[in-house]
Specification:
The chain is an alpha+beta fold and 460 residues long. Helix content is 52%, strand content 20%.
Length: 460
């Protein structure tokens, strides 16, 4: 509630200097108390209202200095009190306005005839303004951030000017501090946003590198595995050449016994069968690897016979699994058909298999891995694929289980562990809209995964 300090008609002081000082202190205490716990725009909204009441003026504006669309300087109001309520915030150019002087870090006072002094300021006309008092909002670096101004539809004399300048000078410093805090908060948020984007990009690159490294390791293993059947086939082919030379020598002789021909024929037949079996083995290995390599870079959703698909994927990892002395058992119905992104599923299972091979048996195998899968239909008929992956290795300590899906968490720091394998599993499952968790059970490691299935015909 405002207390008039001057007679409306004569503009003579209603109180002596001591009384005016007391009233000014009361106004200062009142505004300080009402704004003490407010911050940012809330502080400015309370401030303009309380200043308007304390000074008994029609308008109080708190605004930020901005660059307008045409490149000129302007003010964007952050809080605007007008008459008996808050007014919508506006933007206006500083050119030809009394606010222009304020942004030059000069106090501005016009006790009357403000419209005549600034005839091109249409905002003053709209306000029916007669008088103006303004103070700049200056930050701790000496930079002008905005303005705090009081505008009235009546003249302001010298006595009232003193109260206005007292209150505006005090609260302009607080207002500048709030604007500076907002600016620094925005700058900090922008720095955090940029660094977060950089970290996410770096993490994405690391995950991609980890996936390519895993694929490279698989290539090396498959290459070594393929060498064995190819080598056997080459040896058998060489033997067939020797058998053929023997046959030519026999046929070129004076006579050939039936027993000798049958013996050579059996040898040729055995070598041919050996070549066929080993080349078929090599073809299977290459085929499984090719399918796995294509799937891991594909987002394609396809209908899969799950047992056959998982069996092929396990076969592609057989070199690593054999090296670790691990056997894999599948508990999947032969006719279980699902529709999902094959590449995503292959990445999940590949990382789980390699995690068991590298971490589950620190002293080596033998070991057993079980992959169990079934389809579950919820009450809303939404089908889910339930995957259970378990091994009989050393298991998970509580601290490991708690953090195993976090990026860069590894129990083999400094031993080649990147800490991204299980994070990749978690990330892919989340991307697919599923859930993954590590079950507290012993012995071994037990991972449960639920994946939503795309619409398709399914059988269990």
């Amino acid at each position: 509630m405002s207390i008039p300090l001057f007679d409306v008609n004569s503009q003579e002081p209603l109180f002596d200097p001591e009384q005016r000082r007391t009233l000014a202190e009361a106004a200062l205490r009142s505004i300080t108390a009402s704004t003490a716990r407010a911050r940012g725009d809330d502080f400015l909204r309370i401030l303009v209202k309380d200043l308007a009441e304390a000074l008994d003026v029609h308008y109080v504006i708190a605004g930020r200095l901005v660059r307008l669309a045409d490149g000129s300087e302007g003010i964007r109001t952050l809080a605007l009190w007008g008459g008996d309520g808050y007014q919508p915030n506006i933007e206006y150019s500083l050119q030809h306005t009394p606010c222009q002087d304020v942004t030059c870090q000069s106090m501005c006072f016009h006790g009357s005839d403000i419209q005549r002094r600034f005839p091109f300021d249409t905002l003053l006309v709209d306000m029916r303004a007669e008088s103006y008092v303004g103070m700049p909002l200056i930050d701790t670096d000496g930079k002008t951030l905005g303005i705090l101004s009081a505008i009235d539809t009546r003249p302001i004399d010298e006595n009232k000017r003193l109260l206005a300048l007292l209150l505006l000078s005090i609260f302009s410093a607080r207002g500048a501090a709030e604007l500076q805090h907002q600016e620094r908060t925005q700058q900090l948020e922008e720095v955090v946003r940029q660094r977060t984007e950089s970290l996410l990009m770096a993490q994405t690159n690391l995950i991609e590198q980890e996936q390519m490294a895993a694929l490279g390791s698989l290539v090396a293993g498959v290459s070594h595995e393929v060498n064995t059947p190819i080598g056997v086939a080459l040896t058998a082919a060489s033997s067939m050449g020797s058998y053929a030379d023997q046959l030519v020598q026999l046929l070129g002789g004076a006579k050939v016994s039936r027993a000798e021909l049958i013996d050579i024929a059996e040898s040729l037949k055995g070598a041919a069968a050996l070549i066929e079996r080993n080349l078929a083995r090599a073809a299977d290995l290459i085929g499984n690897f090719k399918q796995l390599a294509v799937d891991q870079v594909s987002e394609y959703v396809a209908d899969l016979l799950l047992h056959d698909y998982v069996h092929g994927l396990v076969s592609a990892h057989s070199p690593e699994l054999r090296k670790a002395a691990l056997g894999v058992e599948l508990d999947i119905a032969p006719d279980c058909q699902v529709r999902l992104a094959a590449g995503k599923l292959s990445q999940i299972l590949s990382n789980l298999l390699m995690n068991s091979a590298r971490h589950g048996y620190p002293h080596g195998g033998p070991g057993r891995i079980l992959i169990r899968a079934r389809i579950e239909t919820q009450t809303d008929d939404a089908p889910w694929l339930l995957l259970e992956f378990s091994d009989d290795g050393v298991g998970l300590a509580p601290a490991v289980r708690e953090h195993m899906f976090e990026p860069f968490f590894t129990t083999k720091r400094g031993q080649g562990g990147s800490g991204l394998g299980m994070h990749i599993v978690y990330t892919i499952v989340q991307q697919l809209g599923g859930q993954v968790c590590a079950i507290d059970s012993s012995p071994g490691c037990h991972i449960h995964i639920r994946l939503p299935l795309a619409a398709s015909a399914r059988r269990e």
